[in-house]
Specification:
The protein is of the alpha/beta class. It has helices at 13-16, 23-32, 76-92, 119-122, 133-143, 171-174, 193-209, 234-240, 247-269, 301-305, 309-314, 336-347, 377-385, 399-404, 409-417, and strands at 55-60, 97-103, 147-152, 156-158, 179-182, 185-188, 214-217, 274-277, 320-321, 353-358, 391-396. The radius of gyration is 20 Å and the shape is globular.
Length: 426
């Protein structure tokens, strides 16, 4: 079955790629996914280099040591060498931007004034790794002509529910009333104004300290639904939810406020810096909302994550959006081609750049359906995007696969579409 989501942060590869489909979707997807390629045999026809100004990015995940560092406890010298190797790989693939995850679980890859050092570096949250990873990443990326987008997650704290396992200095231990356990994990409560202010301060500390090119978020706002569990924000809703028609509307307003306030603060701190978000690829299904996409996804960001991603685009609160279109062309429940067209229409006239999140990690994975065993599938994605002038580039998940390139899918993209270098859009 082709899964309908990707970025969880549990341990191990199986936990990293989490799917959300309804029972009806599961049956339909299971029957139809083998034919997901939709484009027939043969490769994509390269259209030559795109116009000057094209996003060619890759995510570099640090949570659970997914991409970097390869494991905890490496020496500072080895960590630095691995990081630089990833940057050199990006250059070799003619990419021009790296989205480095610098705040994976309410901890930091720089000497933060707000949160402890990340566990992904030393294996012990709060332990100084002996160097400045983010500062080095910015310097070395810029030296190679790469943009450095600092990737943050606003609200997740840990992939367990034991606050005692957090560093003694962790804000979640100092403010237990800010924390909600849910689905075996810990989250900051988005409904508390003091939390919203704190997470902005914690993230924007990096923007104040370093010449990062963008503040970047992924798809986690309110957590993905867990069957039979309640996200306990009852007290916060009682205190702050007056005037909203229901809890869902209040939750969406909480996330809207976070986005709107962060956007304003980014421009205040450094007007040249950008603010971008990479949401789950389905805003709403058309069966739920006539403005939605022709999909049958079991998760809808508006309804389940309380993230009104389309509104953020239409209001112009963000500089760019990177919807995670992690499905193949012709995939029944969420067809890449149809979603590409939907997002192109969503950004039209907004001034917000559209980059497409691409599931390189699926290419050649034996657990994925037939479409993903074809090295040309991703190249066909980029060929389709050439027919949509609103698409200003692509970002690939993620760094490990950009380098390893299991079946040559990334090499095919480079050969067909990235024959020459390109700068990122400004």
């Amino acid at each position: 079955m082709e899964r309908l989501s990707r970025r969880t942060f549990g341990l191990g590869a199986a936990a990293t790629l989490s799917g959300f489909v309804t029972a009806g979707d599961a049956a339909a997807v299971g029957r139809g996914s083998a034919a997901g390629g939709g484009s027939g045999a043969g490769g994509a026809v390269g259209r030559g280099p795109r116009a000057v100004g094209e996003m060619r990015g890759m995510w570099l995940a640090t949570v659970s040591n997914r991409d970097w560092p390869s494991r905890t406890g490496l020496t500072a010298t080895r960590q630095r060498a691995e990081l630089i190797a990833h940057l050199d790989t990006a250059v070799r693939r003619r990419l021009n931007a790296v989205m480095l995850q610098v705040r994976p679980t309410a901890d930091a890859l720089w000497p933060s004034a707000y949160e402890p050092w990340s566990q992904s570096l030393t294996g012990v949250q709060g332990r100084d790794p002996g160097w400045d990873p983010l500062g080095t990443a910015v310097t070395e990326a810029h030296a190679r002509g790469l943009e450095m987008h600092a990737w943050f997650n606003p609200y997740r704290i840990a992939n367990h529910t034991d606050p005692a396992r957090l560093a003694a200095s962790h804000p979640a231990r100092r403010h237990p009333d800010w924390v909600v356990p849910y689905g075996g994990k810990l989250y900051y409560n988005p409904g508390l104004p003091q939390v919203r202010a704190f997470v902005q301060d914690a993230m924007l500390d990096a923007l104040r300290r370093y010449e990062i090119d963008a503040v970047h978020w992924d798809d986690y706002f309110y957590p993905y639904p867990v069957a039979g569990q309640h996200f306990d924000d009852d007290a916060a809703y009682a205190a702050h939810g007056a005037g909203f028609r229901d809890r869902a509307a209040w939750r969406r307003d909480n996330i809207d406020r976070l986005v709107r306030e962060t956007a304003a603060r980014v421009k205040e701190i450094r007007p040249s810096a950008r603010f971008g978000i990479s949401p789950f690829g389905v805003w709403r299904n058309a069966s739920t909302d006539p403005l939605g996409s022709p999909t049958r996804a079991g998760v809808q960001t508006y309804d389940d994550l309380h993230a009104d991603t389309r509104k953020w685009v239409r209001e112009g609160w963000i500089d760019y959006i990177v919807p995670q279109l992690y499905w193949s062309i012709g995939f029944a429940a969420a067809d890449y081609a149809k979603l590409l067209s939907w997002w192109a229409k969503a950004v039209e006239g907004s001034g917000v750049r559209l980059y497409v999140g691409e599931a390189l990690y699926k290419a050649g994975d034996p657990a994925q359906p037939a479409a993903w065993q074809d090295p040309a599938e991703l190249s066909r994605h980029l060929a389709l995007a050439h027919d949509h002038p609103q698409v200003a580039g692509h970002v690939f998940f993620s760094g490990k696969e950009v380098g390893a390139d299991r079946i040559g899918a990334m090499a095919r993209v480079v050969a067909d579409h990235y024959q020459r270098s390109a700068r990122s859009p400004r």
